[in-house]
Amino acid sequence: MKHPVRLTVVTHTRCGDQRETLEHRFTGHMVRRGDRTLLVYREPETDSLTHLLVEPGRVDLRRSGALKSRMVLAPGLRHDFDYCHPLARVSMAVVTHSLSLAADGLTAEYDLYTGTERLASHRLVIRWQVLTD
Length: 133
Fold this sequence. Notes:
Layout: E1 2-15, E2 18-33, E3 36-43, E4 48-55, E5 58-65, E6 69-73, E7 78-85, E8 88-102, E9 105-114, E10 117-130
Antiparallel strand pairs: 1-2, 1-10, 2-3, 3-4, 4-5, 5-6, 7-8, 8-9, 9-10
């Protein structure tokens, strides 16, 4: 059964000496089946639809629309993917250092690469709250 949710997505990025924190709030829906949770929400700023599949030890984050990408986050995993922007397509990789899952959110720490060059380190925190009528 679908449940409406409110999500808060906070990304802490470190690139060399520069640090940036971005926080976004979205509404979407959630479906739970066993130990898997699917969250779906639209990102109006990028005109993208995000599907976030959370399962034990792994998160699969897919974007479709203006931005297209698929990142799989799992501790110790290097996942190669294409980041497709309307102006360019970039081959990238994500290397996950840690992933912490809870019933109402997740925290992941990972690095993004192009080839062997690290672009940035990230700490992603996503929290969701089921909305009641």
